[in-house]
């Protein structure tokens, strides 16, 4: 039996350690930081490894070939340092196991014997080489191994990316990019999508406003426009043909759009193409006609709520709420389940869903009922009142006058929008873009192909 054969191969040259004994941080903290960092550079890929898989060199000090898996002597929590053999075989990174055109798994997982084992596991400088009992050979870069011993998945790049919360002050210097740069080289697109991730919105200045098609082309630089029951790319002036308050001149408090979809629109764009004064209005009246746009950083507001009233935050992040769209003939839309106002993945804020007008009837509390919570309606109203108060704070409200030539694109999962009342006729065009399509474009314009593949394939 060779099962417990120990491999302790000295590395040629100097061992590069991720963890210094003098480091004030815990070993697992350091490893996690390395494995989730979006900015690290990968070493040259091993020739035997599929193109998305080389990773940072963080070798364990030893590896052990156990009956149940590959054990690593590495500073992670207990039970996370044994990788089951079948898991390793199923996740072989080699060029025949990963279709190099589609990056899909290229073999039948369940044709592999459930008890497959390594005949040999060899610790190499850049990763571990496994020779299987059926003759196949696999190589796993340390970057891949480390990601799974320290985390549940490889970094999706978004959750570890820098976000800067904004308030009223950002109105004086909002994030901007130039239309020409976005429509030109990839760097302009990278800059635009990155600002949306970082700040939640961006203005694209210098956009032609004599032809709405130019705005459509700009949005399609990110991804195709999402169709809804209101249509796809829109170009409208207010009337009540469509029964929604957005089509009137009324003020609208801060809200997110399409709360009534299981997956609300990811991005939204507005472009004010023209604003014609009301008939008979003089110059002074024109200047006072309003129609300023309001942006509120929902993640910032959620953070404030969490700090000031953790219980209220917990209520809004837990209790499911009914949302609906019912105002158009033959259209009745509601998500497949009740969704809370604040959604997180782990501790990272993911989505704000807030339009009080589109909110249905709040469920009453049930001890362990349909809503999976025992949060009372009264507790929810108390929490939502606090949330509403934070959203209306002057220091939270970013007011910006839309102008022809300046396209506002914002993250509808993060930023709430609204407007003041206005007079006259505004012609506005815009559209929605799906979240996943936006994130894909952001990744492909900002990161190398290898990191992008790692972030989606694992
Ligand atoms: Zn393979």
From TrEMBL:
Q: Name one Pfam family in it.
A: GBBH-like_N
Cofactors that this protein relies on: Fe(2+); L-ascorbate
UniProt name for this protein: trimethyllysine dioxygenase
Q: Does the keyword Lyase apply?
A: no
Q: Which GO terms describe its molecular function?
A: iron ion binding; trimethyllysine dioxygenase activity
Q: Which organism is it from?
A: Cladorrhinum samala
- The EC designation for this entry is 1.14.11.8
Q: What class of enzyme is it?
A: oxidoreductase
Q: In which pathway does it act?
A: Amine and polyamine biosynthesis; carnitine biosynthesis
Record family assignment: Belongs to the gamma-BBH/TMLD family.
GO BP term, example: carnitine biosynthetic process
Ranges for domain TauD/TfdA-like come to 186-430
The reaction(s) catalysed by this protein are: N(6),N(6),N(6)-trimethyl-L-lysine + 2-oxoglutarate + O2 = (3S)-3-hydroxy-N(6),N(6),N(6)-trimethyl-L-lysine + succinate + CO2
Q: State the coiled-coil residue ranges.
A: none
One GO CC term, this protein:
mitochondrion
Q: What does this protein do?
A: Converts trimethyllysine (TML) into hydroxytrimethyllysine (HTML).
Gamma-butyrobetaine hydroxylase-like N-terminal domain mapped to chain residues: 79-144
Q: Which InterPro entries match?
A: AlphaKG_dependent_hydroxylases, GBBH-like_N, GBBH-like_N_sf, TauD-like_sf, TauD/TfdA-like, Trimethyllysine_dOase
Which UniProt keywords are given for this protein, alphabetically ordered? Answer: Carnitine biosynthesis, Dioxygenase, Iron, Metal-binding, Oxidoreductase
